[in-house]
């Protein structure tokens, strides 16, 4: 019932918000008739660039639409089918301001002028004025002197007023041009000048007054006046259906009182003009390309006529998302459920709005395909945000943990009457420093546990001086410790563990695994083995932890990043019996390990794959968030990247091999387990596709720079998605570290930088694992290496450095070449900045790793509380 009330509240809020922002706007009514329309009769698939022109029949149908609502039309060419327009217009009592197209092609200019002269001199004599050229001087295709000569020539040849059409500022800049014109044909398009719609009509009045003052003896005709309904913004001018309606209805009312002669720009949308003016050029029509009116002429203006449909669609999509997010929410506090419902409604509103905006665009098959991919990308991003939000809610607002056992709630481990099972501890090693291995074995020898053995499996180490001291030390520790040096041995770490399984003591009931660098605490086995009292439990897992995190700032930042997974992610996953088995500090019931076929040698993350196989067979796992052993961390940024590459690549191998179990439920996996495995890997998959987005963003930015008119920045709502995605993930991480893990802001920031620094590495691993699928060698994380020098550190982040340089350069060049007059361009550059952050984080972290003397004191962790 409480969930229903929360859902209903947000549904009402969503509908009310749509209603509020779409309140009817009272504006002056459209006049019964207006002086004129700019008239280009091209339809959707027609363009002067393709040589496909309107037919006589289609032009006549267009004129029929305008019949009775306009006194005259303005045309732009006098040749070809356009020369037939005067005769067709006369049937509907429409006069013409007949245009001749003038550009740098003087031969074509002659054809246009001759056609103009011929048409004016022949019936039906409905040409009331001639316009020689349209912004030809503005485009600098001909000079003022050349245009003046054309005007003088046509003044002598024609008996109607002659002028050329230019924006108001061109007439002001070249007053001598007016001396050769019978009137001023002026373009008043305040949108192009970045004037907000609220001030646009007053702006025109001011400019008309300015022209009248400077040219007192010249009649002024507004040859183009209008506002686009879609496309990029310019400064404070925003293109929208509502703004077009508001501007035109206000202007027409003002023009009536001022007595202006004008031609509304324009009658019908012209998609082909996007090649000249960018996307906005296609949307200046009062009617769309299908000849349907784009707004109300007489009734109050509603910004989005379809707002009710959009509101209902947003609510329905949100309800679907909420049902998914709250499927297992009985243990979630009210504020957690409210948070998830809010995120779902916000996500649905953005998705519906992006889809709606996309439907308003004129598209060819290429743009439709790009649009489809774009929609899929937007929905994919929001899917990841919803998954992240779910983890956020469950990390902060659970009433209590259903499955997490804290040390205080564990069964008694000191009882002498307990029948302790025999444990076989396996320590795989390859080319590990012998001193480090000896410390690991000494810690195992101090275990407070009555019945265990230790098997050390050194596989394929070639240098005898590396493995021989370890073998000798095992002999010193007694019969519990057995050492195996095997070369050759296939299967990397999994091969070594399967070899150990074959040589395990026959009485062993559980297998424990630690990495070769781990020093365990004496009560490790006693603390964990008690979980096997539950017969369905097959895995007991404790966190990875590290003892050298305070050596320097680099390791402290990496340590902070690791902590998030082990003390937030794993705790959340444990609620639904879906933990990731991560190899070290793990215990596995032997008979189950043998039942599922041992350690898998087809992936490079055999530990996680084994855990999933055990879940597929219907067994349980237990996660205890207390650390019982600590290893050593990667010493350099390159080692840190290699480790994460292995994890991410291995995860994709597992996803491919277990797709049937994860997506088709072909095993005993329950819904919660499948959700956590898929959802847990989604952020990594998102990194992979985000890298593709970065490459596409670079290509698009280069196109914007090379041809800023044709290639505009994407819609703001599109740009907002990656910005919101980055901001949400960063905010989530900071919030959970500050509240859930009691870390300082500096520590949380260090963890964020370390996590971001791995994005490029994860992206490459994911894309390779998903689409290439070749088996890569097991990437061992070296221990005890000296930190890299500064040049080596920068080389370790070479790809990331190159991408930072490219993205930063693109922002600067776009600002220089295009400018930030358009909000879309500004937001696009913010997107490029956001895309740059992970690569910049990699450069920063790699540089820090080159200075091992930088203290870790400022990043030191407070105690972590899991409950």
From TrEMBL:
The keyword Transferase applies. One of its GO terms (cellular component) is plasma membrane. Keywords: Glycosyltransferase, Hydrolase, Magnesium, Membrane, Transferase, Transmembrane, Transmembrane helix. Pathway: Glycan metabolism. Its EC number is 2.4.1.336. GO terms for molecular function: hexosyltransferase activity; hydrolase activity, hydrolyzing O-glycosyl compounds. It is found in: Membrane. It catalyses: a 1,2-diacyl-sn-glycerol + UDP-alpha-D-glucose = a 1,2-diacyl-3-O-(beta-D-glucopyranosyl)-sn-glycerol + UDP + H(+). It holds the Pfam family Glyco_trans_2_3. InterPro entries: GH, Glyco_hydro_17, Glyco_trans_2-like, Glycosyltr_2/OpgH_subfam, Nucleotide-diphossugar_trans. The chain crosses the membrane at residues 307-327, 339-359, 365-387, 684-705, 717-738, 750-773, 801-819, 825-851. It is an enzyme of class 2 (transferase). GO terms for biological process: carbohydrate metabolic process. This is Beta-monoglucosyldiacylglycerol synthase. It comes from Hydrogenovibrio thermophilus. The lineage of its organism: Bacteria, Pseudomonadati, Pseudomonadota, Gammaproteobacteria, Thiotrichales.
